[in-house]
Amino acid sequence: MTEQYIKSIGLKRESIADFEKYPFSLPAVRSRQMSLVARMHDLINLESQFIIATHSPIIMAYPDSFIYEIGDGIRKVIYEETEHFQIMKAFINNKEKMLKELMLSEQ
Asked: Can you tell me the distance from the alpha carbon of 35 to that of 24, in angstroms, rounded to the nearest whole number?
């Protein structure tokens, strides 16, 4: 019965070609998010279920997840419709433009 709880999370570092490349260079990914997805997968294969509150597009990307977005109400959305995915995608695809807009809005 104790197999139903996450006891530890690990990253298979030998499987990563280069930790200096995105997204592995990010501290949060390097040590937590990717490892969490891998451990969740192991436990889901053992019929575990999870309820997770997150802003992480990496964790939300788990296949066949039900994603609920909380705003003026609660609605079920697909991964690509989430605000967090859209912001991350926009930032990655237009880093300089996004940074310029963010820095102008601070002045």
From this structure: 11
Nearest to 45 by CA among 3, 87, 99: 3
- Residue 88: other Cβ atoms inside 10 A: 16
How far is it, in rounded angstroms, from Cα 80 to Cα 1?
Answer: 35
For residue range 18-58, what is the model confidence (pLDDT) as tens digits?
Answer: 767 766 666 656 667 777 888 888 889 999 888 888 888 88
C-alpha closest to that of 15 among 34, 41, 36, 28: 34
Domain parsing of the chain, residue ranges: 1-65, 68-107
Token readout for 17 is: 């070609």
